[in-house]
Amino acid sequence: MVDFTVAIPTYNGAQRLPLVLERLRSQTETDLVSWEVIVIDNNSKDNTSAVVQKYQQDWPDVFPLKYYFESQQGLVFARQRAIKEAKGSLVGFLDDDNLPAEDWVAAAAAFGSKYPKAGAYGGQIHGDFEINPPKNFQRIKSFLSIRELGSEPKLYRPEVLNLPPGAALVVRREAWLKSVPNTPALIGRINGSMLSGEDYESLLYLHKAGWKIWYNPAMHTYHQIPKSRLERDYLISLAKGVGLCIAPLRIVNAKNWQKPMILSRIILGNLRRATLHWIKHREQLETDTIAACEMEFFLSSLVSPFYLLRGVIAGSRD
C-alpha cells in the first residue's frame, strides 16, 4: 500500500522539472513512508516526456517515478488525472516551479496521519525571486501563492475564502473522489486567460462535505518567481483573474435563495473598497504597481457577478 503520492502537473516544464525532481530524489526522513512520484504532462509541446524518461533510467526503485500524458488542457484536468492515477491515500500536488524542502514529503505524510479529518492542507510557501519584488509587495504576495502564516497549525476558514493555494497542496484522495465533481466550473488559466480560482473551488467542495482544511507550518516549499512575473502588466492581469473568480467561488456552496444576496454584497462591498482605495491612492495608481493591482482586484471582484451572470463561467451549480 502506498501512503503518499507526489503529483507534478506540468505544461512545457522541461526546463523546470529537473529542479523539482532533484529535490524529490534527495528527500530525507522517508524511511517509514511508502511513496511515489507521478508527473502529469498536460499536453506539453516541448520535450517534457524525454526529461522524465531520462530521470526514470536511474531513479530509485523505493519510490517509483511514473509519467502520464493528459491531453485535455487545464490544470484542473491535470489534477483530476493525478487523483485517478495516484496509488497513495494522500496526494501532494507540486507545481513545476515549486521546490520542496528536503523533508517536505515526511512532513506532509506525518500531518495527514495526525489529522485524519483533514481533507486538504497546505504549508508554508516562500517566494524565491529572480529580482527584488516591487515596494509593498507583501500586500499582494498571496496572488502569487506565497503563504507564511506562522509556526503553529491552524484551520483555514473556507466560508470567507480563506484557503491554501493549490501549489504544494496535499489532499486526501478518498475525500476528493467523494466530494469534488469531475466537471468543475473553473478550469484555470488556459488559452491566454488569467482567470483563477480552480484550486479554491475543489477545496470548497471538500469543505461542504465536512472535511477540514488545515495549514501545516512544517511543510516548506519555495516558489520560483522569475522577473517576468513581477512586471506591472503581469501582476495587474493576475489580480484581475483573482478578482473575477470571486462570485463563482462565493456561490459554490450557496443555496439558490442565498445567491442574490451574496452577489449583491459582492457588488456593494467592492464598490466601497474600490472607492476608498481610489480616494487614498488616486495619485499613485499610474506609478505604484501594488496600488494598481489592488484596485484591479477590487474592480474585478465588483464585476465578477456580472461576469458570472453573462454565462462566461458555469458557476451556478446547486
Could you please describe the fold and organization of this structure?
Strand 2 (35-41), helix 2 and strand 3 (65-69) form a beta-alpha-beta unit. The protein is built from 10 helices and 9 strands. The chain has helices at residues 17-25, 48-56, 75-85, 104-114, 173-179, 198-208, 232-244, 246-250, 259-281, 289-309, and strands at 2-10, 35-41, 65-69, 88-93, 98-100, 118-129, 154-155, 169-172, 212-225. It folds into 2 domains: 2-230, Alpha-Beta Complex (Spore Coat Polysaccharide Biosynthesis Protein SpsA, Chain A), CATH 3.90.550.10; 234-309. With 318 residues, it is an alpha/beta fold. Strands 1, 2, 3, 4, 5, 6, 7, 8 and 9 form a 9-stranded mixed β-sheet that branches. 38% of the residues lie in helices and 19% in strands.
Overview features:
318 residues; alpha/beta; Spore Coat Polysaccharide Biosynthesis Protein SpsA, Chain A; nine-stranded mixed sheet; 10 helices; 38% helix; globular; disordered C terminus
In short:
By secondary structure, the protein is an alpha/beta fold.
Largest sheet, described in full?
9 strands, mixed
Report the CATH C-level class of the largest domain.
Alpha Beta
Total helices: the number is 10
Gross CATH architecture of the largest domain = Alpha-Beta Complex
Instruction: Return Rg in Å.
Output: 20 Å
Q: Give the strand tally.
A: 9
Uncertain ranges: 312-318
